[in-house]
Fold these 3 entries.
Entry 1:
Amino acid sequence: MRTLLHKRTRWGLALTALLALLSLYPAAGAPRVAAQAPPSDGLVCTTGPTFTLTARAGYIGTPDDNILYMWGLSAGSDPYQYPGPVLCVNQGDTVTVILHNTLSQDISLIFPGQTGVLANGQPAQPQFDGTGALTSLTNVAPANGGSVTYSFVASEPGTYLYQSGTNPAVQVRMGLFGALVVRPSLGAGYAYNRVDSAFNPANEYLVLLSDIDPYLSQAMETGQPFNMSNYHPRYWLINGRGFPDAIAPNFASWLPSQPYGALARIYPYDATLNPLPALARYINVGSEDHPFHPHGNNGLMIGRDGRALEGPAQQDLAFERYSFNMGPGQTADVLFRWYDAEAYAPNNPVPVTIPNFQNMMYGMFYSGSPYLGEQGTIPVGTTSENQCGEYYIIAHNHALYQLSSWGVLMTGPATYMRVDPPQPNNCP
C-alpha cells in the first residue's frame, strides 16, 4: 500500500480553502466549458447528450493521508478522476455514451432506470463465455484499448446511477461509476414534471456515497486475486472525498483526482428574496446502507430511483424525513430549506445567558456571535474561518462507524450546510 510521502494537514488546507471556495457564488449546475469557470460549490454538470468516457487507473487521497490505487471514468482525454463525471441531459434526449477502455480488464456500462439501451446500434445484451457462464451484464469495451458505444432515450426525469456491468462487485467498488441527471421537460429549475418540484438552480447539490476496501485496491494494483467474500470497507466517501476534504471547493488543487466538493450553501427562506428550496440529489453506490442525516432541518423527499413520488392523477406522495436511508444502488431527490424560525438578533436576543470565554470552546466556524450575520469578539489565539457571521450546520452519515478513514474518526461522509445572512450582506 502506497503512503503519502509528504503529509499534509488536510484540516488546515480544507478550512483555509473555504476562503477561496466562497469568493465566488456562481449558479450550480452550469456546464463545465473552457470559457466558464466551474462553480466552486454545488453540482458540476458535464452536459450532453453525447459523451465520451475513458476508463483509467489513478490514485486518490484520503483524510488519513493514505493514497489508494483506484479506477475511474473521465471525460474524453481529461485526466483520471473519481467519481466519474456527472452526466446532465434533458428529458427526451437521445443520449450517446462512447466508452474507451485503457484498463487491463474488459469493462462495460449499464444505466439502471433507462430502457431500450443500444450497444453499437443493437439492443444491449448480456454476454456469456463458451460454457454459457455469464461474463457481463451488457456488451463490453475490450481490455487495453477497446471501445463500445451505448445509446438510449432519456424518457424519465430524475437522478440515476451509471456503473460498470462487468464484474460489478469489483469494478464498481474500484470506481467505475457516476451520476446521471435527466432534467424534466418543465426546465432546469424543476426536478420532475411537477410545479411543486421547483428549486433554485443556484442551489443544486450532489450527495454521492461510496465505500472502499484498500485491500481490494492493492490487489488490483499488484495483479493479485481477491476474494470478494472478504470485502470489508475501511473508507466511506461523499462525492469521492472524506471529511474535511468534502467541504473543500470543487476542483481543489490538492485533490486533483477528486473534483467534487459536498458543501451546500443557502440563504434563509424568505417568501420574497429566497422563496425556492435547494435540491439534493442522493445516490448510494456503496455496498452498505447509508442513513444520511442532515442536522438542523428536515428534507422533503420528492422522488426515488428516478420516479416522482406521486399516486394516481399526480397525487402528491412526497414526505418529510430527518434522515435518509439509502440502500445500495438507490437514488433520491430531496428539497430542503433553512428557516430562521426564532429570528434571534441583538434586538431579539436568545433567552439564555451566553457563558464567558473561560467556559466556552470556540470552533473554527463560530463567528463569536450566536446571531446570523453578526461577528463578535473571539479569544486571543483562536482561529476562525467564519467570514461574515454565517452558520455552519453539519450533515453526515448516521451509521457512525462509517464516519472514519480506517479508524480515524470524523473523516468519512460528512459535510456542512452553510447558511449565509440574508442579502444584502458582506459575504464574499
Note: The longest strand covers residues 50-61.
Entry 2:
Amino acid sequence: MWRRMSYAVAYRTGRTPWDTGVTPPEVVELIEGADPLAPGHALDLGCGTGTNVRYLAEHGWHVTGVEADGRAFEAAQRLLRPVTGAHVAHGDVTRLDDLPLDGPFDLALDIGCFHSVAPPRRDAYARGVADRTVPGATLFVFAFARRPGLAPVGVTAREMRDRFAPWFDPVGRIAGSQPPGAAWYRLRRVT
C-alpha cells in the first residue's frame, strides 16, 4: 500500500523522475534497431502517463497500457486520445484478469514496474503476463537491482529467470547505468 501512496504523492507533486516523456534507447533499439520486432499487440505494464504506449502505437503496434495511479492514468488517456491503436486501462498489474485487455500480446513491456511490486504479489504478475502472451512473445523489463531494506525493491537476474519460469526463458540482459546495478531483461515466451 505504501508503494501506491508514494507514487500518488509523486504524480500529485510532479516529482516523477522516471516519467521523462522520452522512450528509452533500449526500447527504440528493440522496435527500430537492426533486428526489430514485427509490430503486433503490445502490453505496457505500469505505463505511467503513456509515453511508451504512444511510441509503440506510432510504430504500428496495437497497444494497451495498464496504470494503477489515477493521475497518471488520466494523463495517459489525454495523451492517447488522438492516437490510433492505443488505449490505457486503470488497474493493478498483479490483477490483469480484472481488466479489459485486448490480447493475446506479442510484446509485454515493463519499464520500472515489476521491481516495485511487493514480492508476495510478483507470482501473480508473472502468471498474468504469461496468460496474456503468445508463444514467442517478448517480455522486456527494466528493473533496479535488489536493495536491502524493510520494503525490498528491485530484482536479481536469478529472480527474473525463476519468477517467470516455466513460461519464459531469459534471452538477454543489458546493464543499465542508473541506478547502479539496474538492467534491462529480455525474456521469450516458450509455453
Note: The domain at 23-189 is CATH 3.40.50.150 (Rossmann fold).
Entry 3:
Amino acid sequence: MIRPGRLHKGDTIAIISPSWGCAGSPRVLWKYHLGCQRLIELGLNVVPSPNALRGTEYLKNNPQARADDIMWVFGNKEIKAVMAAIGGNDAATLLPYLSAETITCNPKIFCGYSDVMALHLFCFRAGLMTFYGDNLLPTVAETGGWHPYSRYWFEKVFFDSDPIGEITASKDWSFSKDNLTDKSYRKTYTDNSGYCYVQGKGKVRGRLFGGHGDLRTVRTSDGSEIVRREDMDGSILFFEDIPEFCTVDYMADFFDWLGGKGYLQILKGVIIGKMRMQSGFEPYAERIRQVVTDKYHCADLPVMGGLNFGHSSPMFILPYGAEAELDIDSLRFRITESGVV
C-alpha cells in the first residue's frame, strides 16, 4: 500500500461532500465552520473543495461535481489531506468518474466513515492507504466539543509516522444521534465497559480491511463486486454500521454473507464497533457464534466487539491495509504499523 505523507502544522486539509451535501445548507453551515475552527486549532489550514458547500439539492443531482472535487483535491499539490464533511447513501455513484491513476500518483491522507467507505474501497483497489475515521460534521464539529479520545487519535495517526500502537477503549461513549442544526445540543455519554469477547482464541496478525454492511453491495463501474477474495485473505476485518438498523438479525446476516462467500474461512480475525443495545453486546455475540461457529465451523476465529469506531462517539482511526494485531485472549488490539510516512 502507498502511504501518504504525515501532516505538519501549516498544511492544508480540504473538506469534500462526496455523499450528502448538507454542509453548505444555511441551517448547517455554522457547524461546518465550527469543525474547520477545530482543525485550525491543530495548526491546519482548511479549505472547501469547489463544490463542497453548494448544498444538498445541487450535489444530489450532480454526482460528477462531487467526483470532480475528489479529483481536484488529489490533483492539487498544495493539499495534504482530505476529509469528508459527512456520509450519506450514494458515494458509490461517483466511482465511474474517478481516476485511479490521479489518486495513486498524488497520495495524501483521505479520512471519513459511513458511506465514504465506497471511496475507500476504490482507493484501496488503486493501492492507496486511506483512513476509516472522522467526518467533519458529526465528529470534529460535535457541539459538546471534539471528544478528546477522537482528537488524540486524529493527531496520533496523521501527525506521527511512528507505529500507531495499542488502541485502548475510551473512558466513555455515546450513540446519541447527531444534530446538525441545534447549537445547544449535547450528546449523552455513558461509562465504557471496554471490549467484548465473542469467540476464538490466540493472537493473530493481519492487514486491516472493512467498513459497514454495504461491503456486500458496492460495485465497480463495470458492475462487478468491489470486494474480492484477496481483500479478505489473511485480513483482520473491521465492521460497524448505523445503529438504527444494525439489529442482531442484520449482524447475523452479514456474518452469514461472509461465510457463504468463503471469507470467514480465510480471515485472521474480526473487530466490531459499538452496538446500540441496553443489554450490552451479548445478544449480538450469541448470534455471531451461531453463524461463525455452529454453521461455518470457524470456532477458532477471533472475534471481538465493542471497539470505538464508526457510528458512535468517540472513535479511533483505521488505516486500510495497515498491519494489526488482535489478541483475543487478553482483549487487546493494536495497529503495528504507521499510516503515514
Note: The longest helix spans residues 282-295.
